[in-house]
Amino acid sequence: METNRLRQFCVIAETLNLRKASELLGISHGGLFKSLKVLETELGYALFRKEGRGIVFTDGGQKFYPKAQKFLQAHSELLREDSTAANTFRIGTFEVFSTYFFSGVLAKEFSDQQIVLRELIPGHLEKALIQDEIDLGITYDPIPMQGLQILPIVKCTMGIFRNKDAFRNISFDQIPFAAPVFPIDSAVSGVKGLDGWPDDKVKRRIQYKVDMMETALQLCSEGRAVGFFPDFVVKLYNKTRPKDLQLIRFKGPKNLKTVKRMIYLVLRTSSDESQAVKKIAKCIRIGLSPKSWST
Questions:
Q1: Domain-wise residue ranges, the chain
Q2: How far is CA 144 from the centre of its chain?
Q3: Which distant-in-sequence residues (6+ apart) come within 8 Å of 36 by Cβ?
Q4: Among 3, 71, 90, 169, which is 20 to 30 Å from 200 by CA?
Q5: Is 93 helix (H, G, I), strand (E, B) or coil?
Q6: Distance of alpha carbon 7 from alpha carbon 71, whole angstroms
Q7: Does the domain at residues 3-79 carry the CATH identifier 1.10.10.10?
Q8: Alpha carbon distance 52, 251 (integer Å)
């Protein structure tokens, strides 16, 4: 019985949706279905049955699921080196938190611990948690999935930012924005853009679609575009730039109210809220506090 097949079964069990599970696992729907049938043949009984358009556990599947979880957890512990298990913490997040906030705030708090930092957009971040590729996710667009717990930490204020000499006498609908390429399809907030722009309330003209937030910041710094960023990112960015290339807040249209977005930590439901998790939550709260910018 292959360990990978057991892991696939657990993802199916957590989603109760073959198509969703195949997306999370990165394999075809047909391939996952065949793998499930092989596992059922090895066990000698069915694990799921169809109900309506979805699937549900059989009695055998219901009993087998916790056994498979325990086996995978034990297997993971056996493969993990003692030193790595004791001194490594794996974090998944995206560029908003990794580029400036991590190096400026988190890294110094974990100087005695090995940190594995992976940049993952919403959806991929949750998949990595389910597959035990990371221990914690930091995001403001969590995608709810079975097997995960979502912990709200603190809100950050968003704003439109530009170079101080750019776009002074131009109507809002003509101002070019730099915005992320990737959309978000299933976020709790209903926001479609990775940068958090409220598309359902205010339309904007996106001229530059970019993979990296750093590229958007550079375009804004040079006066070629404006961008929608968290305050804390711009404040950290400005610390590294000369005054003529720093960003200032741009007053948007009247119907755009102040946008605040909650920052979340995402964990597996089986994970304990460790000291590392508590330390990260504390760092985020302190790092985003207005008092932290006056020191």
A1: 3-79, 83-295
A2: 11
A3: 8, 9, 12, 18, 47, 48
A4: 169
A5: strand
A6: 10
A7: yes
A8: 51
- pLDDT tens for 62-102 read 999 999 988 888 877 766 544 455 577 889 988 778 776 77
For residue 140, what are its two tokens?
């403001």
- Look-up of token digits 């609908």: 173
Is a pLDDT exceeding 70 seen at residue 40?
yes
Q: Which of 4-18, 31-45, 125-139, 170-184 has the lowest mean pLDDT?
A: 170-184
Phi, psi of 48 (to 5 degrees): -135, 160
How far apart (Å, rounded) are the C-alpha atoms in residues 149 and 265? 8
Q: Identify the CATH class of 83-295.
A: alpha beta
CA distances from 193 to 23, 136, 230, 265 (A): 21, 23, 14, 20
Q: Which residues contact 45 (CB under 8 A, 6 or more apart)?
A: 58, 60
Tokens of 231: 């305050």
pTM of the model: 0.62
- pLDDT at position 178: 94
